[in-house]
Amino acid sequence: MNKRNRHIELNGKYLQDAKALLKKQDYPQASEKLWGATAQIIKAIALKRGKKLRSHESISKYVVELSKELNDNSILDYFGLANSLHQNFYENWLAPEMVSRYAKIIEKLIKKLRPLAD
């Protein structure tokens, strides 16, 4: 399996894991899986285009590129929520309702970006 396909596979796995963790009300773990799903789809897109993203900073900068390319600022907003979820894994400060709401938004982001990875 090539690395791009591995990122796509992990994206799906992490998204399913997040849904299961939300049902268990394990919001910090669900938060991290949502972040991971987001990062994996972005890494898959970059790899398809010949770029390797190896840090949070490189992922963040690439998201800006994608947002400009697609002329879609919602990508920046949604990615900001993914970052909040990543922080929530460590600090558990988001209300459960926020994590659940952000999960739906992250799914929208992934649906928007997925065709670019295929």
What's the total helix number?
5
Shape: globular
Find the CATH topology.
Four Helix Bundle (Hemerythrin (Met), subunit A)
CATH uppermost class:
Mainly Alpha
Helical coverage, percent range: over 70%
Number of strands: 0
Mean pLDDT: 97
CATH architecture: Up-down Bundle
The CATH homology group name: Nucleotidyltransferases  domain 2
Which percent band covers the strand fraction? under 5%
Uncertain spans, ≥5 residues at pLDDT below 50?
none
Main pleated-sheet profile: none
How many individual domains? Answer: 1
Spatial separation of the terminal alpha carbons: 14 Å
N-to-C SSE string, H for helix and E for strand = HHHHH
How does the helix and strand content classify structurally?
A: mainly alpha
